[in-house]
Amino acid sequence: MAGEPVKRRASVLTRAAFGLDAHPVHVECHLAGGLPGTTVVGLAEGAVKEARDRVKSAIRNSGFHYPTSHITLNLAPSHLTKSGTAFDLPIAIAILAASEQIPTDALADTEFVGELSLFGDLRETSNLLASAIACDSANHRLFLPLANDTEIALVGSDKSWPATSLYEVAQMLCGRREQPPMVKAIAPDAATTTGRFNEIIGQYQAKRALTIAAAGGHHMLMVGPPGTGKTMLAECLIDLLPDLDKPDALSVASIYSAFGMRRSNVMRPPLRRPHHSASNASISGGGHTPTPGEVSLAHRGVLFLDELPHFKPSTLDLLREPIETGEIAIVRARYRTVLPSRFQLIAAMNPCPAGRSCKEQTCRCTSSQVQRYQSRVSGPLLDRIDLHVPVPELDEALMQRHQNEVESDQGELQRTRTNVSLAQRRQRQQQGCLNANLSSEALARRINEADFAPTFLADVCKKLELSMRSYHKVWRVALTIADLEQAASPPAPGSQPESVSPAVTEQHFMEALSYRTMTLGGER
Question: What count of other Cβ atoms lies within 10 Å of the Cβ of residue 78?
Fold first, then answer.
């Protein structure tokens, strides 16, 4: 009809990151007659609505014309909450396409994610890795800030188009600038160890248990008075673990991206050590939008809980399901999401509030205080921990003897790392996982292959009153001990030791059993 204002429109594809999921979102822009203004609809939260002012300034400072008509922006689907500043770039592109300043045919199979400054620069955006993975799976090209290029290098996609500004994105869409070269993933740092493993004086049993825990992915609890090296031992576990493979590194990096954090060395297993005052939500995750907690941030790494009884019992009980399943379900009134949490739990505690219950003549705690202190750690959680290791005080003679021997064996760490790496590689090649995560069916087959006396296992279970879970954990630890023994032994000429499962002997089983016979109060 004559005199009717021209109505223009455009639709741009982006992603709404929700935990580790990235849902597709269409940014629909409609330019209509009426008073100039911008309306954003589609369940947009505060940061998204504020994009109107950022985008308006960014478009003008990039040399483009901001339409004087009434602009309506719809973020579809409307039932999905949109939060964060990553919608700045797709909103700006939708406005430029609707006003015919960039070609709309260049938007096919293309997604945009990024925050804009007032001057049109693209800033680093949090929780972008989930969107990059989903975009690569959909075979779409992705325009994103150049500041995030090293983060998405793990994805290995050739359809990533990093840019520094809105003007640069528009130039590439118009064909006036070629695609930037793909960023290569950063090689892992060679110096990834703290070197403190060689500095541990004595504590041979604890170091042996730490090696077993590293080789099989087992959980470990250390009990001993203050100053005996429990914290140093826990921190040294990271030194023994091999680098992550690419899928695990990408999974860990996605979790940290959702948390709004970037790791300095993405190929190393993470170490998380929350304070004992941590809340339930900080451990499990949650919030207004699903945010990973400590159990997820420690995925494929180590979760170290120092001063274990000082954590709230309800917080410790949150660990029971993730330990068993390797994931945690965050359920809130508005959403439900599942985050990976396959971590190694390393815990340390004193035997009593004063820390000296091993020396009755110097401990000032009563028996009721000791019992109340130790009972803060529930039995079901203790039953899920594979290795219970005492870390006693060193006598003065032993400390004096080893004081000058710290530098004597610098190759100990390297030998231990090599044996751990060989044992883990053998487990993954034979069964697809570490011994700590071995399925019940596969474990039953290994038990049947063991050459034990018929009454040996029955006598052990009856005497020690092991639960079925404890019994299986002892077997898994025994398998790891056998793997370590085979890794430390030189292979025969022409043999392929990784293709043969090592036999579990009674000696292996008895050593594994020694890590289950300690209770918090002493020996059974």
Answer: 12
Tell me the pTM: 0.89
Measured between alpha carbons, how far is 263 from 4 in angstroms, rounded to an integer? Answer: 55
- Please choose, from the candidates 113, 57, 106, 58, the residue with its C-alpha nearest in 3D space to the C-alpha of residue 89: 113
Label the pairing between strands 37-41 and 122-123: unpaired
Count of CB atoms situated within 10 Å of the CB of 202: 18
How are beta strands 21-32 and 8-18 bridged, if at all?
antiparallel
Secondary structure class of 500 (helix, strand, coil):
coil
What is the structure's pLDDT at 522? 40
pLDDT of residue 477: 95
Distance CA 79, CA 94 (A): 21
The answer to whether 142 and 131 are in contact (CB under 8 A) is yes
Nearest-10 crossing angle of helices 456-464, 506-514: 10
- pLDDT confidence of residue 357: 55
**What is the helix (H) or strand (E) element at residue 487, kind and residue range?**
helix 468-488
What is the end-to-end Cα distance of the chain in Å, rounded?
93
What is the block-wise mean pLDDT of the chain (524 residues), using blocks of 10 residues?
59 92 95 90 92 96 94 94 93 96 94 97 92 94 92 87 96 91 62 66 89 96 90 91 93 93 89 95 90 96 96 94 94 88 95 72 80 90 93 70 55 87 93 92 86 74 81 92 87 56 84 79 39
DSSP 389-434: EE-PPPPHHHHHHHHT-TTS-TTHHHHHHHHHHHHHHHHHHHHSS-
Return d(Cα 96, Cα 113) in angstroms, integer: 16
H or E segment and range at residue 327? strand 327-331
Contacts of 37 (CB under 8 A, 6+ apart): 70, 71
- Cα distances (Å, whole numbers) of residue 483 to 145, 304, 370, 427, 434: 46, 25, 38, 8, 11
d(CA 307, CA 234): 12
| Cross-strand bridge partners of residue 384 | none
Q: What's the chain's length in residues? A: 524
